[in-house]
Design a protein that fits this description.
This protein is α/β, with parallel strands linked by helices and 334 residues long. Helix content is 39%, strand content 23%. The strands form five sheets. A seven-stranded mixed sheet has the order 3-2-1-4-7-6-10, with helices on both faces. The protein has a three-stranded mixed sheet with strand order 5-15-11. Helix 1 crosses helix 10, helix 5 packs antiparallel against helix 8 and helix 10 crosses helix 12.
Length: 334
């Protein structure tokens, strides 16, 4: 059994649920520790009682150190501050030999066991994943060489030493701005391969596909799923997960896929299935809690027609209408 952890609040519930269901579809034996950043997520997860999920409330998780900095950080900054503490909580309280942190907006197209096998063979105690920015999006100077999206820590001395150091740094400073070589919880990772022993950087490029690097790959389909072929090296990898960063829900039924250039294959093979998965997750949540509106952005309000007019004028392929999702659910195409 592989052990994973993640964190999200109600705003990201449909993403977190979609990520969980993609793990289930990969047919992997796993346990997912979900740190619930509001009471509604904790209540609903306990009501659903999904196989493999362990809901953890803020009351159970938050330490005096975290509570002391919480009033001075935004919601996003506090989530970033908590990331190493979430990992440590699982290792300390559930006595797992290792745990992998997952961002809630990941979606799996194959079992992550493939990536964890590489880690095990490396002999390392910590695995991190690179951004692998495409040339036109080189942002490592600001955002960091590595991405806090899929990270594995072993419950051994080397792993705990790295994690303790990261916990302390994030308590000291973790903000959504670049300052003195820092940015959020992420820039701290830049020198880990030199600073610490036992750091393994994931080599399998099918883990860590994202909007900032997808133009570097041709996406192909075979009988076992999706493949990513690096257009520079020609190396081919099984697609394991895609990071749906910066997907935004807008007024009037439009979903904005972010500011990066997306290939037609990426929109067809990654984004369309993911948007349908979000819609399905939203239906599940709506049935559980009538006050829960995971897609509240679909409700028109004054000025929405003018907004849609601007969207259509700006349309560059990174927008989808909700009607497309509904039609796909009924087996037709938009």
């Amino acid at each position: 059994m592989n052990h994973y952890c993640t964190l999200f609040d109600s705003n990201y519930f449909s993403r977190g649920l979609s990520m969980y269901r993609s793990l289930v579809s990969s047919r992997e034996d796993f346990r997912l520790y979900v740190f619930c950043f509001d009471d509604r997520v904790f209540r609903l997860l306990n009501d659903i009682d999904l196989p493999g999920i362990v809901p953890i409330s803020l009351h159970e998780f938050e330490t005096p150190g975290l509570l002391s900095v919480k009033p001075f950080r935004s919601k996003a900054e506090y989530c970033w501050t908590c990331t190493p503490h979430v990992i440590r909580h699982v290792l300390d309280h559930y006595q797992t030999t290792q745990v992998t942190y997952l961002d809630a907006d990941l979606f799996f197209f194959a079992s992550p066991a493939l990536l964890l096998q590489e880690f095990e063979q490396s002999g390392g105690s910590v695995m991190i994943t690179g951004h692998r920015f495409a040339a036109k999006y080189i942002k490592s100077v600001v955002n960091g060489i590595y991405c806090v999206q899929f990270m594995t820590f072993k419950n051994d001395k080397r792993g705990i030493d790295v994690l303790s150091w990261w916990q302390e740094r994030c308590l000291e400073w973790c903000y959504a701005r670049a300052e003195d070589g820092k940015f959020g919880d992420q820039k701290y990772l830049d020198d880990w391969p030199e600073r610490f022993d036992g750091i393994h950087v994931l080599q399998h490029e099918g883990g860590g596909l994202a909007p900032w690097n997808i133009i570097n790959y041709r996406i192909l389909r075979d009988e076992d799923g999706l493949l990513a072929s690096n257009v520079i090296t020609g190396n081919r990898y099984r697609v394991v997960f895609y990071h749906f960063h910066n997907l935004r829900f807008n007024i009037g039924g439009y979903l904005e896929l972010g500011d990066y250039t997306l290939t037609t294959a990426a929109r067809e093979l990654f984004y369309k299935p993911y948007l349908i998965a979000l819609s399905e997750a939203g239906k599940i949540l709506g049935k559980l809690d009538g006050s829960f509106d995971p897609h509240g952005f679909f409700v028109p309000h004054p000025g929405w027609r003018e907004f849609l007019g601007r969207i259509r004028r700006r349309l560059k392929g990174n927008y989808y209408a909700y009607s497309y999702i509904k039609e796909r659910e009924h087996g037709t195409s938009a």
